[in-house]
Amino acid sequence: MAKQAKRSRERGSFRERDGVFQVRIYAGRDPITKQRIELTGTATTPLEAEQLRTKFLAQVDEKRHPKSSVTVGQVLDRWMNVADLDASTRERYAEIIRLYLEATFGTLRAGELDAEMLERFYARLRRCRNQCDGRGHDKADSQSGTKHECRPLAPNSVRKIHFVVRSALDPAVRWNYLSVNVAEHAEPPAFQRRDPDPPSADEAAAILNKAWKDPDWGTLLWLAMVTGCRRGELCALRWTDVDFDSRILTIAHSYSQRAAGRQIKTEQKRRIAFDEDTAQILKAHWERVEQRCIALGSTLRTDGYPASPSRWSSPPSAPTGGEP
């Protein structure tokens, strides 16, 4: 009786069937599919079966008892607390964590995460960003009333998720939560280069002719076309960045609704030469804005923003009104 009670408390089991011993060990549930995970194998003798059961149990315990009980969600939170990120990048990473990583791995112990799990996660996102796995297509959404339609996540978007995971696990290794960064062994989707489709010379001319009905708007589009600057870089451009004598634009900052005056993406200033036509267009723009300031009893700020909607050429993030 005592022997039977002891056997019931043992983890895993093996049984004989047709002269073969079948070993089965419960290893938890898959965090992605939520299905039961079992390690199974066969042996020819009871001793071999017991040895195989012990081997399986060691594998399970290695996963269940990492150096720390910290979860993937906690690792992500602690990394975000110390990561040196600008405001727009932080907001984008927080959204990635909330939509994909927390929802899938948030409560999973970080030591249980492995490369295979990450690659299956990436594959599911490439099929459907909601990870529906093909189920529920015939069921209407309870809120919108429309049927679910799989929308795959772009390869470059999945790569961003991979980068967040890999970056978050690096300090977890340094802090002795983990012994290895498993994301370094996972393979994300290949980088997908975009095929740009710029307007032809005739199309560009048509766009500029249409835009020049508003000279300010036409000036901004002209600068975008001849310099190749990003929108945020043009919005952060100051008059002090325009050297009319040398005909040089200095690109040092970028602007977004999340963070004004942040560093440009390359984190390195660059200088762009412009031609005489561009110089004349910029000078005409300066004169237009200067005349508006005079009409308002003010003066044009030399450190103002040529692309600003404010009549004083103040930064886009500044409130309208007040002293120039």
Folded structure, characterized:
The protein has 324 residues and is α+β, with helices and mostly antiparallel strands. The protein folds into three domains: 11-64, no CATH class; 72-135 and 150-185, Tyrosine recombinase, N-terminal domain (DNA polymerase, domain 1), CATH 1.10.150.130; 201-295, Intergrase catalytic core (hpI Integrase, Chain A, Orthogonal Bundle), CATH 1.10.443.10. Helices cover 43% and strands 11% of the residues. It contains ten helices and eight strands. It has helices spanning 2-9, 46-64, 72-82, 87-105, 115-127, 155-174, 201-211, 215-227, 231-235, 276-295; strands at 13-17, 20-29, 36-43, 242-243, 248-251, 253-254, 262-263, 270-273. A three-stranded antiparallel sheet has the order 1-2-3, covered by helices on one side. A three-stranded antiparallel sheet has the order 4-5-8, with no helix packed on it. A two-stranded antiparallel sheet has the order 6-7. A hairpin with a 2-residue loop joins strand 1 (13-17) and strand 2. Helix 3 runs antiparallel to helix 4 and helix 8 packs antiparallel against helix 10. The longest helix has 20 residues, at 155-174. The radius of gyration is 30 Å and the shape is elongated.
